[in-house]
Design a protein that fits this description.
Blueprint (H helix, E strand, L loop, with lengths): L3 H31 L4 H23 L9 H33 L3 H6 L9
Helix pairs in contact: 1-2
Length: about 120
């Protein structure tokens, strides 16, 4: 049987996670909409807020932690992240090299008069 305070503790965890998620979402919108942050820092701020929100979701909603009883869940999550990184990195690598092979030289070299450029008469 589950103790009565366990349900209250879970509900408290969900409320804290929800409030942190709302704050991080509003923060990301405020960075873009208010225009107070320099343009060069907007994307890093949004990425940082997204990473923080992922951590909030993992800890407060999925209850993923470094506790010994969570070891297998943490290992499965790490393996999932690894597979996603391999697939994403491999896809980007393939697309980059396909672009290089299909497009050849830089298009600016074609009009610059460079005799070593592909397609120069």
């Amino acid at each position: 049987m589950v103790p009565a305070h366990a349900g209250a503790e879970t509900e408290r965890s969900y409320r804290i996670g929800f409030l942190l998620s709302v704050v991080l979402t509003v923060l990301a919108f405020a960075v873009v909409l208010l225009g107070e942050v320099p343009r060069s820092l907007i994307v890093p701020c949004i990425v940082a807020a997204a990473a923080a929100q992922m951590l909030v979701h993992l800890s407060y909603f999925l209850h993923l932690s470094a506790a010994p009883e969570q070891r297998w869940n943490l290992l499965a999550f790490a393996f999932t992240v690894l597979i996603i990184a391999i697939v994403l990195g491999g896809s980007l690598w393939i697309m980059y090299h396909l672009h290089e092979q299909m497009m050849g030289a830089d298009p600016m070299n074609l009009v610059s008069g460079n005799p070593h450029a592909v397609g120069h008469p």
